[in-house]
Amino acid sequence: MKKIAIVAPYKQYNYGTVLQAYALQQAVDRYGCSSEYLNFTNAVPLSLWKRVIKKIVSYIKHITKEPVISGLDDYSFFSSPEFEEFSKGFDHFIKTRIRESSINYNPLTLPSCTEYDAYMVGSDQTWGEARTKKNPIYFLDYVNEHYSRLSYAPSLGSTHISKVYLQILKSKLSKFNSLSCREMTNCKLLSEELGRKVTFVLDPTLLLNANDWNKIAECHPNTGLKEKKYILCYILGEKQSISDYAEKLGRIKELPVYYIVTRPIYLHKERHIFATPESFLSLIRDAHTVITDSFHGSIFCINYNTQFYSFTKREEENSIDNDRIMEVLNTFHLLNRYKDGKTDYESDINFVETNRLLEDYRRSSEQYLNGIMKDIEK
After folding, report:
1. Do the beta carbons of residue 309 and residue 146 sit within 8 Å?
2. How confident is the model at residue 317 (pLDDT cuts 50, 70, 90)?
3. pLDDT in tens, 234-262
4. Burial class of residue 58 in the structure, from the number of CB atoms within 10 Å of its CB (0-12 exposed, 13-18 middle, 19+ buried)
5. Which pTM does this prediction carry?
6. Which of 13, 31, 103, 283 is the most exposed place for a label (fewest CB within 10 A)?
7. DSSP state of 2
8. Cβ-based neighbour number of residue 101 at 10 Å
Protein backbone atom coordinates (compact mmCIF):
# COMPACT_ATOMS: atom_id res chain seq x y z
CA MET A 1 0.00 0.00 0.00
CA LYS A 2 1.36 3.38 -1.03
CA LYS A 3 1.83 5.94 1.72
CA ILE A 4 1.08 9.62 1.10
CA ALA A 5 1.99 12.64 3.20
CA ILE A 6 -0.61 15.39 2.98
CA VAL A 7 0.78 18.85 3.64
CA ALA A 8 -1.94 21.31 4.69
CA PRO A 9 -3.28 23.03 7.82
CA TYR A 10 -5.37 20.70 9.96
CA LYS A 11 -4.93 21.81 13.58
CA GLN A 12 -6.62 25.19 13.48
CA TYR A 13 -9.80 25.96 15.41
CA ASN A 14 -11.74 26.56 12.22
CA TYR A 15 -14.55 24.35 10.93
CA GLY A 16 -13.56 24.66 7.29
CA THR A 17 -9.92 23.81 8.01
CA VAL A 18 -10.52 20.60 9.97
CA LEU A 19 -13.43 19.37 7.83
CA GLN A 20 -11.57 19.81 4.55
CA ALA A 21 -8.57 18.04 6.10
CA TYR A 22 -10.82 15.14 7.07
CA ALA A 23 -12.49 15.10 3.65
CA LEU A 24 -9.26 14.98 1.65
CA GLN A 25 -7.92 12.13 3.76
CA GLN A 26 -11.15 10.19 3.23
CA ALA A 27 -11.03 10.82 -0.51
CA VAL A 28 -7.39 9.73 -0.86
CA ASP A 29 -8.01 6.56 1.16
CA ARG A 30 -10.74 5.52 -1.29
CA TYR A 31 -7.99 4.76 -3.80
CA GLY A 32 -6.33 2.18 -1.59
CA CYS A 33 -3.60 4.46 -0.29
CA SER A 34 -2.64 5.23 3.27
CA SER A 35 -2.44 8.94 4.05
CA GLU A 36 -1.49 11.07 7.00
CA TYR A 37 -0.92 14.76 7.58
CA LEU A 38 2.62 15.95 8.05
CA ASN A 39 2.91 17.05 11.67
CA PHE A 40 4.97 20.20 11.34
CA THR A 41 6.07 23.19 13.36
CA ASN A 42 7.74 26.21 11.84
CA ALA A 43 9.85 26.77 14.93
CA VAL A 44 13.45 25.54 14.98
CA PRO A 45 14.43 24.00 18.36
CA LEU A 46 16.45 26.44 20.44
CA SER A 47 19.31 25.75 22.81
CA LEU A 48 18.72 26.17 26.55
CA TRP A 49 20.40 29.59 26.64
CA LYS A 50 18.44 30.83 23.63
CA ARG A 51 15.19 29.70 25.23
CA VAL A 52 16.08 31.57 28.43
CA ILE A 53 16.97 34.72 26.49
CA LYS A 54 13.76 34.49 24.47
CA LYS A 55 11.68 34.27 27.65
CA ILE A 56 13.48 37.28 29.17
CA VAL A 57 12.95 39.36 26.03
CA SER A 58 9.31 38.33 25.88
CA TYR A 59 8.80 39.31 29.52
CA ILE A 60 10.44 42.71 28.99
CA LYS A 61 8.21 43.40 26.00
CA HIS A 62 5.19 42.37 28.04
CA ILE A 63 5.84 44.82 30.89
CA THR A 64 7.00 47.73 28.78
CA LYS A 65 4.50 47.75 25.92
CA GLU A 66 0.78 47.67 25.44
CA PRO A 67 -0.45 44.40 23.99
CA VAL A 68 -0.94 44.48 20.24
CA ILE A 69 -4.44 43.60 19.11
CA SER A 70 -4.76 42.68 15.45
CA GLY A 71 -8.53 42.67 15.12
CA LEU A 72 -9.96 39.80 13.15
CA ASP A 73 -6.55 38.15 12.93
CA ASP A 74 -6.19 37.94 16.70
CA TYR A 75 -7.27 34.50 17.92
CA SER A 76 -5.79 34.61 21.42
CA PHE A 77 -9.31 34.25 22.83
CA PHE A 78 -9.25 30.54 21.93
CA SER A 79 -7.13 29.95 25.05
CA SER A 80 -9.57 31.77 27.36
CA PRO A 81 -11.78 29.85 29.82
CA GLU A 82 -14.89 30.92 27.89
CA PHE A 83 -13.70 28.95 24.86
CA GLU A 84 -12.62 25.79 26.70
CA GLU A 85 -15.65 23.84 25.48
CA PHE A 86 -15.06 25.06 21.93
CA SER A 87 -11.38 24.06 21.97
CA LYS A 88 -12.06 20.62 23.42
CA GLY A 89 -14.49 19.84 20.61
CA PHE A 90 -11.87 20.64 17.97
CA ASP A 91 -9.07 18.83 19.80
CA HIS A 92 -11.20 15.69 20.02
CA PHE A 93 -12.11 15.84 16.32
CA ILE A 94 -8.47 16.26 15.27
CA LYS A 95 -7.29 13.47 17.57
CA THR A 96 -9.95 10.92 16.60
CA ARG A 97 -10.68 11.67 12.94
CA ILE A 98 -7.46 12.97 11.36
CA ARG A 99 -4.31 10.86 11.08
CA GLU A 100 -0.98 12.65 11.42
CA SER A 101 2.68 11.65 11.32
CA SER A 102 4.13 10.37 14.58
CA ILE A 103 7.16 12.62 14.05
CA ASN A 104 6.80 16.36 14.56
CA TYR A 105 8.97 17.87 11.84
CA ASN A 106 10.57 21.32 11.75
CA PRO A 107 12.57 23.18 9.04
CA LEU A 108 15.78 21.38 10.04
CA THR A 109 14.35 17.87 10.06
CA LEU A 110 12.07 18.05 7.01
CA PRO A 111 14.76 16.82 4.57
CA SER A 112 14.92 13.59 6.61
CA CYS A 113 11.22 12.94 5.95
CA THR A 114 11.55 10.10 3.45
CA GLU A 115 9.05 7.52 4.66
CA TYR A 116 6.37 8.37 2.07
CA ASP A 117 5.84 7.42 -1.57
CA ALA A 118 4.40 10.80 -2.48
CA TYR A 119 3.73 14.24 -1.01
CA MET A 120 0.51 16.10 -1.62
CA VAL A 121 -0.21 19.75 -0.91
CA GLY A 122 -3.81 19.87 0.25
CA SER A 123 -6.47 22.52 0.16
CA ASP A 124 -7.03 25.74 2.12
CA GLN A 125 -4.99 28.82 1.21
CA THR A 126 -1.83 26.73 1.00
CA TRP A 127 -0.44 28.71 -1.94
CA GLY A 128 -1.63 32.08 -0.69
CA GLU A 129 1.10 34.72 -0.59
CA ALA A 130 0.65 35.56 3.10
CA ARG A 131 0.76 31.91 4.16
CA THR A 132 3.79 30.89 2.09
CA LYS A 133 5.78 33.86 3.39
CA LYS A 134 5.32 32.56 6.93
CA ASN A 135 5.58 28.89 6.04
CA PRO A 136 7.10 27.77 2.70
CA ILE A 137 6.45 24.11 3.55
CA TYR A 138 3.59 24.12 1.01
CA PHE A 139 5.99 24.38 -1.94
CA LEU A 140 7.56 20.99 -1.05
CA ASP A 141 11.13 22.24 -1.64
CA TYR A 142 12.41 19.70 0.89
CA VAL A 143 11.07 16.71 -1.05
CA ASN A 144 13.65 14.58 -2.84
CA GLU A 145 13.26 14.58 -6.63
CA HIS A 146 12.63 10.82 -6.58
CA TYR A 147 9.24 11.32 -4.89
CA SER A 148 6.06 12.56 -6.53
CA ARG A 149 4.95 16.09 -5.67
CA LEU A 150 1.19 16.34 -5.95
CA SER A 151 -1.51 18.88 -5.24
CA TYR A 152 -5.21 18.77 -4.57
CA ALA A 153 -7.25 22.00 -4.54
CA PRO A 154 -4.73 24.44 -3.04
CA SER A 155 -6.02 28.00 -3.03
CA LEU A 156 -4.11 31.19 -3.76
CA GLY A 157 -6.44 32.97 -1.37
CA SER A 158 -7.29 35.63 -3.93
CA THR A 159 -7.77 36.05 -7.66
CA HIS A 160 -5.64 39.20 -7.59
CA ILE A 161 -2.05 37.93 -7.77
CA SER A 162 0.88 40.34 -7.89
CA LYS A 163 3.39 39.98 -10.74
CA VAL A 164 6.20 39.42 -8.23
CA TYR A 165 4.40 36.58 -6.48
CA LEU A 166 3.32 35.10 -9.80
CA GLN A 167 6.99 34.72 -10.74
CA ILE A 168 7.66 32.97 -7.42
CA LEU A 169 4.79 30.58 -8.10
CA LYS A 170 6.10 29.97 -11.61
CA SER A 171 9.44 28.85 -10.19
CA LYS A 172 8.17 26.84 -7.23
CA LEU A 173 5.33 25.02 -8.96
CA SER A 174 7.39 23.92 -11.94
CA LYS A 175 8.69 21.01 -9.83
CA PHE A 176 5.24 19.51 -9.21
CA ASN A 177 4.11 16.33 -10.97
CA SER A 178 0.47 17.43 -10.84
CA LEU A 179 -1.09 20.85 -10.43
CA SER A 180 -4.62 21.77 -9.44
CA CYS A 181 -6.40 24.70 -7.85
CA ARG A 182 -9.83 25.30 -6.34
CA GLU A 183 -10.36 28.63 -8.15
CA MET A 184 -11.23 28.54 -11.85
CA THR A 185 -9.77 32.00 -12.41
CA ASN A 186 -6.42 31.02 -10.92
CA CYS A 187 -6.33 27.75 -12.85
CA LYS A 188 -6.46 29.74 -16.06
CA LEU A 189 -3.87 32.25 -14.83
CA LEU A 190 -1.39 29.58 -13.67
CA SER A 191 -1.89 27.46 -16.79
CA GLU A 192 -0.97 30.42 -18.99
CA GLU A 193 1.98 31.40 -16.82
CA LEU A 194 3.44 27.91 -16.39
CA GLY A 195 2.66 26.63 -19.88
CA ARG A 196 1.01 23.48 -18.51
CA LYS A 197 -2.43 22.45 -17.38
CA VAL A 198 -3.56 23.41 -13.89
CA THR A 199 -6.79 21.51 -13.26
CA PHE A 200 -9.80 23.04 -11.57
CA VAL A 201 -11.05 20.77 -8.78
CA LEU A 202 -13.58 21.11 -6.01
CA ASP A 203 -12.74 21.90 -2.42
CA PRO A 204 -12.28 18.52 -0.66
CA THR A 205 -15.44 18.99 1.42
CA LEU A 206 -17.46 18.68 -1.80
CA LEU A 207 -15.85 15.34 -2.70
CA LEU A 208 -17.98 13.88 0.08
CA ASN A 209 -21.73 14.05 -0.50
CA ALA A 210 -24.39 14.80 2.10
CA ASN A 211 -24.75 11.11 3.02
CA ASP A 212 -21.00 10.84 3.58
CA TRP A 213 -21.07 13.81 5.95
CA ASN A 214 -24.12 12.50 7.78
CA LYS A 215 -22.04 9.51 8.91
CA ILE A 216 -20.16 11.79 11.30
CA ALA A 217 -22.73 14.58 11.78
CA GLU A 218 -24.06 14.76 15.33
CA CYS A 219 -27.24 16.59 16.26
CA HIS A 220 -26.61 19.41 18.68
CA PRO A 221 -27.81 18.65 22.24
CA ASN A 222 -29.89 21.85 22.32
CA THR A 223 -33.35 20.27 22.08
CA GLY A 224 -34.90 23.62 21.20
CA LEU A 225 -33.57 23.32 17.66
CA LYS A 226 -36.15 21.82 15.34
CA GLU A 227 -35.38 20.88 11.75
CA LYS A 228 -35.89 23.80 9.33
CA LYS A 229 -37.27 25.90 12.19
CA TYR A 230 -34.35 28.25 12.86
CA ILE A 231 -32.05 30.74 11.16
CA LEU A 232 -28.37 29.91 11.68
CA CYS A 233 -25.58 32.50 11.72
CA TYR A 234 -22.09 31.21 11.05
CA ILE A 235 -20.11 34.46 11.05
CA LEU A 236 -16.31 34.61 11.24
CA GLY A 237 -16.08 38.41 11.31
CA GLU A 238 -17.90 41.02 13.37
CA LYS A 239 -19.85 43.11 10.86
CA GLN A 240 -23.06 44.30 12.50
CA SER A 241 -24.81 44.44 9.13
CA ILE A 242 -24.68 40.63 8.83
CA SER A 243 -26.36 40.08 12.19
CA ASP A 244 -28.94 42.76 11.36
CA TYR A 245 -29.72 40.96 8.09
CA ALA A 246 -30.21 37.66 9.95
CA GLU A 247 -32.38 39.16 12.68
CA LYS A 248 -34.65 40.84 10.12
CA LEU A 249 -35.00 37.57 8.22
CA GLY A 250 -35.88 35.86 11.51
CA ARG A 251 -38.68 38.35 12.08
CA ILE A 252 -39.99 37.90 8.53
CA LYS A 253 -39.96 34.10 8.79
CA GLU A 254 -40.99 34.12 12.48
CA LEU A 255 -38.04 31.92 13.33
CA PRO A 256 -35.43 32.18 16.11
CA VAL A 257 -31.89 33.19 15.13
CA TYR A 258 -29.00 31.15 16.52
CA TYR A 259 -25.31 32.05 16.41
CA ILE A 260 -22.44 29.57 16.26
CA VAL A 261 -19.83 31.07 18.58
CA THR A 262 -16.70 31.85 16.57
CA ARG A 263 -15.57 35.01 18.40
CA PRO A 264 -16.23 36.51 21.87
CA ILE A 265 -18.76 38.97 20.46
CA TYR A 266 -21.21 36.14 19.80
CA LEU A 267 -21.20 35.03 23.43
CA HIS A 268 -23.45 38.01 24.06
CA LYS A 269 -26.15 36.84 21.66
CA GLU A 270 -29.28 35.52 23.35
CA ARG A 271 -29.16 32.27 21.39
CA HIS A 272 -25.56 31.18 20.96
CA ILE A 273 -24.14 27.71 20.43
CA PHE A 274 -20.73 26.15 20.94
CA ALA A 275 -20.57 23.61 18.12
CA THR A 276 -18.17 20.73 17.60
CA PRO A 277 -17.15 20.06 13.99
CA GLU A 278 -19.61 17.16 14.01
CA SER A 279 -22.54 19.20 15.33
CA PHE A 280 -21.61 22.07 12.97
CA LEU A 281 -22.58 19.73 10.12
CA SER A 282 -26.04 18.99 11.50
CA LEU A 283 -26.65 22.64 12.34
CA ILE A 284 -25.98 23.61 8.72
CA ARG A 285 -27.99 20.67 7.38
CA ASP A 286 -31.10 21.28 9.51
CA ALA A 287 -31.26 25.09 9.35
CA HIS A 288 -34.05 26.83 7.49
CA THR A 289 -31.52 29.41 6.23
CA VAL A 290 -27.84 30.01 6.96
CA ILE A 291 -26.33 33.50 7.08
CA THR A 292 -22.57 33.31 6.67
CA ASP A 293 -19.41 35.18 5.71
CA SER A 294 -17.48 31.93 5.35
CA PHE A 295 -16.30 30.21 2.18
CA HIS A 296 -16.87 26.79 3.73
CA GLY A 297 -20.12 27.90 5.32
CA SER A 298 -21.37 28.65 1.82
CA ILE A 299 -20.25 25.39 0.23
CA PHE A 300 -21.60 23.21 3.05
CA CYS A 301 -24.98 24.85 2.37
CA ILE A 302 -24.57 23.97 -1.30
CA ASN A 303 -23.68 20.37 -0.42
CA TYR A 304 -26.64 20.04 1.97
CA ASN A 305 -29.07 22.02 -0.23
CA THR A 306 -29.67 24.45 2.63
CA GLN A 307 -30.92 27.95 1.82
CA PHE A 308 -28.23 30.56 2.50
CA TYR A 309 -26.94 34.10 2.03
CA SER A 310 -23.24 34.98 1.78
CA PHE A 311 -21.35 38.04 2.97
CA THR A 312 -17.70 38.94 3.44
CA LYS A 313 -16.20 39.23 6.90
CA ARG A 314 -14.07 42.35 6.41
CA GLU A 315 -15.19 45.90 5.77
CA GLU A 316 -12.51 46.51 3.13
CA GLU A 317 -14.02 46.49 -0.34
CA ASN A 318 -10.97 44.79 -1.88
CA SER A 319 -10.66 42.11 0.78
CA ILE A 320 -9.54 38.70 -0.46
CA ASP A 321 -12.65 37.26 1.20
CA ASN A 322 -14.64 38.81 -1.64
CA ASP A 323 -12.62 36.86 -4.21
CA ARG A 324 -13.06 33.44 -2.64
CA ILE A 325 -16.76 33.72 -1.93
CA MET A 326 -17.65 35.40 -5.23
CA GLU A 327 -15.65 32.74 -7.09
CA VAL A 328 -17.55 29.81 -5.58
CA LEU A 329 -20.95 31.50 -5.94
CA ASN A 330 -20.21 32.19 -9.59
CA THR A 331 -19.11 28.57 -10.11
CA PHE A 332 -22.53 27.33 -8.98
CA HIS A 333 -24.55 30.15 -10.62
CA LEU A 334 -25.59 31.55 -7.24
CA LEU A 335 -24.31 35.12 -7.37
CA ASN A 336 -27.69 36.41 -6.18
CA ARG A 337 -26.94 34.90 -2.74
CA TYR A 338 -24.19 37.50 -2.20
CA LYS A 339 -25.71 40.25 -0.07
CA ASP A 340 -22.97 42.57 1.20
CA GLY A 341 -24.43 46.06 1.38
CA LYS A 342 -27.89 44.84 0.34
CA THR A 343 -31.02 44.39 2.41
CA ASP A 344 -33.28 42.52 0.00
CA TYR A 345 -34.15 38.81 0.19
CA GLU A 346 -34.38 36.25 -2.61
CA SER A 347 -36.78 33.44 -3.35
CA ASP A 348 -35.60 30.00 -2.30
CA ILE A 349 -32.83 28.36 -4.29
CA ASN A 350 -33.97 25.63 -6.65
CA PHE A 351 -31.04 23.26 -6.20
CA VAL A 352 -31.67 21.20 -9.35
CA GLU A 353 -29.16 23.18 -11.44
CA THR A 354 -26.79 23.54 -8.50
CA ASN A 355 -26.78 19.79 -7.89
CA ARG A 356 -26.19 19.08 -11.58
CA LEU A 357 -23.15 21.35 -11.58
CA LEU A 358 -21.94 19.83 -8.31
CA GLU A 359 -22.14 16.30 -9.70
CA ASP A 360 -20.30 17.30 -12.89
CA TYR A 361 -17.50 19.04 -10.97
CA ARG A 362 -17.34 16.21 -8.44
CA ARG A 363 -16.95 13.68 -11.24
CA SER A 364 -14.13 15.61 -12.92
CA SER A 365 -12.42 16.23 -9.57
CA GLU A 366 -12.53 12.51 -8.79
CA GLN A 367 -11.09 11.76 -12.22
CA TYR A 368 -8.17 14.09 -11.49
CA LEU A 369 -7.58 12.50 -8.09
CA ASN A 370 -7.85 9.01 -9.58
CA GLY A 371 -5.28 9.94 -12.22
CA ILE A 372 -2.64 11.13 -9.80
CA MET A 373 -3.24 8.14 -7.54
CA LYS A 374 -2.59 5.80 -10.49
CA ASP A 375 0.64 7.64 -11.28
CA ILE A 376 1.89 6.85 -7.77
CA GLU A 377 1.28 3.15 -8.35
CA LYS A 378 3.58 3.08 -11.41
Report:
1. no
2. low
3. 999 999 999 999 999 999 999 999 999 99
4. exposed
5. 0.91
6. 103
7. -
8. 16
